[in-house]
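Forgive a beginner's question, but would it be possible to get any protein sequence you like and the tokens describing how it folds?
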Amino acid sequence: MRSAATHAPGPAATPVRPTRPALSMLWRAALLSLLAALLLLPAALFAGCGSGGPEPAPTTPVQSLSPSASYGPALLRSEESFPITRDGETLVVPVYASQPLTTPDADVTRAVIAIHGLSRNANDYWGYAAAGLEGVNGVLLVAPQFAESDDDPASDQLYWANSDWSQGDQSEGDGRPWSMSSFGVLDELVASLRATFVNLRTVVVTGHSAGGQMTQRYAAASGDPGLRFVAMNPGSYLYLSPERPAAGGGFAVPKDPPADYDDYKYGLQDLKDTPYVAAVGAEALRGHYEAARVTYLLGALDTDKEDPDLDVSPPAMLQGAYRLQRGRLFFDYLGFTYGASIYERHTMSEVPGVDHDGERMFGSAAARAAMTQ
């Protein structure tokens, strides 16, 4: 143990009193300072006042980034309608973007698509991701909204039943000329970005909670080698074989499981209800997922078994009791299914001190690294 240094006390210092001439000089200096302050007071009181009164404090743009951010001197989040046309009929998906999606920009080399959770608050998630990307050059940030019927969608807007968008289901056809998988929307968005931003080299698809589930399943369904995926705190996972975590460790086919435990969205059986993944097929889904580059980010405190938004269905409970456990077990399962080489493309990090909090997850150093690598 390092000991504290000790010092022997020296002789006590004798205070020195100022002489009368010194005191006189001090009073004179103080009086002059006071007179100068009184002379300047009127100017200070009336500075900046004109016929319209004092100038208001400058306003800060909503979700703005610092001037060092790649988007320019002040990033203003804009809301756009992303159009998709089929058979001459156009429907739209609302998106929040850091710049117009139809205006070419040669400086854009990376796009990040941030997917909201169950609350479908795409505007908030745009802000979460923007904070995590502050100061990064050449990045375009887009946050689409996958609306549900409760959101009172416009007559030309795509929307989904409940949270079916998180697994790639078709949009609702009520009064619409056609419907589309939410995965198909991501396909269209990625293709449009690549066509508009000719120097775009990397597209990152990321999301938290239900958005993390969508990201993880889209990684299996897409098969696009130019995409990177960052799944944060998914509530459940798409397993690529019938095995699940075993009580004694390892993985095995469950004994007397629920009849639907391996149906999609939890497994690869019964794909027919989701036409997008049915068209891909179970074998290709397994192959796509092995080849995909996926980062899993888990909140180290995301352990609440009583969270009302936690999926507690029998198929989900076979994956673990809470989100952190499910993420750890799934990551181990990847090695069981694909072998150790899978970890060359799939990585996992736990974010200390964070529970099921999308803002703090996106704002973590791990998320920034995953979105920019």
